[in-house]
């Protein structure tokens, strides 16, 4: 299923309103005021009105003539509502390109025309997606015509090597002599994980939300080292693993597991038990490596020079 960017934004805003209602535990019949929601979510009243209409379509709210919109359920019942966010045409193409390369149906070096032909996509959509993938480090723009996947994507063992690197780096960042946590950021990170667990358990899972929560956690912990090299290294690894690991996010049980593993690390950091936090980080990354490698175990592997 694909949707326009306007549709995506409407659904995102509707989900944000549901999230607000749930966190604040608004009661049945609560008046959803356009002005207040507009100020809280920092958007104009027009998109808020559209989002409220979406809530009516979901059955989460009703519209009363000359009175406005009102909740049809109490806040603690609302997170189970709301469709999973549909993909835009660009999101769909983005994933199709990744799948095609993993399955070796797209050459290492290809042109814009190749993508347009393979996926029946328009020039403007293809251009936007290719540049987006380039900015995220998933593609390289050639000087002449064409685009290229970095060589690292075609070496199956590189994914394992990436995790080997992270197992060494991320625990050591926690043990760095200048490591200092930001309690406000760490609390916000904890709440994000708890909200994500609630959303998963109620059936509302948005793939990009999962990826962002995961990657932001690791980048935040690395940033506490006060050493930009740690942070940059983890940011680069996160961009690389996005291409393979988005497939693994369909395993809801594993997502909840890694959320709880993250929360356990946060617990130790808040208690200033850094050695214990570093050990939990090492174990977490090793488990993540095992899961990621299992999820791509059936992907075609590029033959190495000594293979026949």
Task: Explain what you see.
This protein has about 300 residues and is mainly alpha-helical. It is about 60% helix and about 5% strand. The protein contains 12 helices and 8 strands. The strands form 3 sheets. It has a 3-stranded antiparallel sheet. The protein has a 3-stranded antiparallel sheet with strand order 6-8-7. α5 (about 110-120) crosses α6, α7 packs antiparallel against α10 (about 230-245) and α11 (about 250-270) runs antiparallel to α12 (about 275-295). The protein folds into 3 domains: about 1-75, Winged helix-like DNA-binding domain superfamily/Winged helix DNA-binding domain (Arc Repressor Mutant, subunit A), CATH 1.10.10.10; about 85-155, Arc Repressor Mutant, subunit A, CATH 1.10.10; about 155-295, GntR ligand-binding domain-like (Four Helix Bundle (Hemerythrin (Met), subunit A), Up-down Bundle), CATH 1.20.120.
Structural key phrases:
single chain, 308 residues, mainly alpha, Arc Repressor Mutant, subunit A, Four Helix Bundle (Hemerythrin (Met), subunit A), 3 domains, three-stranded antiparallel sheet, 12 helices, 8 strands, 62% helix, disordered C terminus
How is the topology of this model organized?
Layout: E1 2-3, H1 5-24, E2 31-32, H2 34-41, H3 45-58, E3 61-64, E4 68-71, E5 87-88, H4 89-102, E6 109-110, H5 112-119, H6 123-135, E7 140-141, E8 147-148, H7 156-174, H8 183-201, H9 207-223, H10 228-245, H11 252-270, H12 274-295
Parallel strand pairs: 1-5
Antiparallel strand pairs: 2-4, 3-4, 6-8, 7-8
Helix pairs in contact: 1-3, 4-6, 5-6, 7-10, 7-12, 8-9, 8-11, 9-10, 11-12
């Amino acid at each position: 299923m694909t949707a326009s960017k306007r549709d995506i934004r409407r659904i995102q805003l509707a989900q944000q309103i549901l999230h607000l209602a749930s966190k604040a535990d608004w009661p049945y019949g609560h008046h959803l005021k356009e002005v207040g929601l507009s100020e809280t979510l920092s958007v104009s009243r027009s998109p808020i009105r559209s989002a409220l209409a979406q809530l009516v379509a979901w059955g989460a709210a009703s519209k009363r003539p000359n009175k406005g919109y009102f909740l049809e359920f109490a806040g603690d019942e609302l997170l189970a509502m709301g469709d999973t966010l549909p993909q835009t045409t660009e999101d769909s193409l983005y994933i199709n390109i990744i799948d095609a390369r993993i399955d070796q149906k797209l050459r290492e070096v290809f042109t814009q025309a190749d993508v347009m032909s393979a996926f029946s996509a328009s020039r403007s959509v293809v251009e936007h997606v290719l540049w987006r993938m380039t900015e995220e480090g998933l593609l390289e723009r050639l000087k002449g015509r064409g685009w290229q996947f970095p060589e690292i994507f075609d070496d199956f063992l590189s994914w394992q090597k990436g995790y080997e690197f992270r197992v060494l780096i991320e625990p050591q960042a926690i043990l760095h002599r200048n490591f200092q946590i930001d309690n406000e950021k760490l609390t916000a990170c904890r709440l994000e994980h708890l909200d994500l667990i609630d959303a998963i358990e109620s059936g509302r899972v948005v793939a990009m939300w999962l990826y962002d929560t995961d990657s932001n956690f690791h980048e935040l912990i690395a940033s506490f080292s006060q050493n930009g090299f740690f942070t940059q290294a983890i940011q680069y690894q996160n961009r690389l693993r996005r291409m393979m690991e988005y497939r693994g996010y369909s395993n809801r049980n594993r997502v909840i597991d890694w959320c709880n593993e993250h929360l356990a690390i946060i617990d130790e950091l808040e208690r200033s038990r850094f050695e214990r936090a570093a050990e939990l980080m090492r174990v977490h990354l090793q488990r993540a490596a095992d899961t990621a490698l299992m999820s791509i175990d059936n992907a075609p592997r590029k033959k190495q020079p000594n293979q026949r």
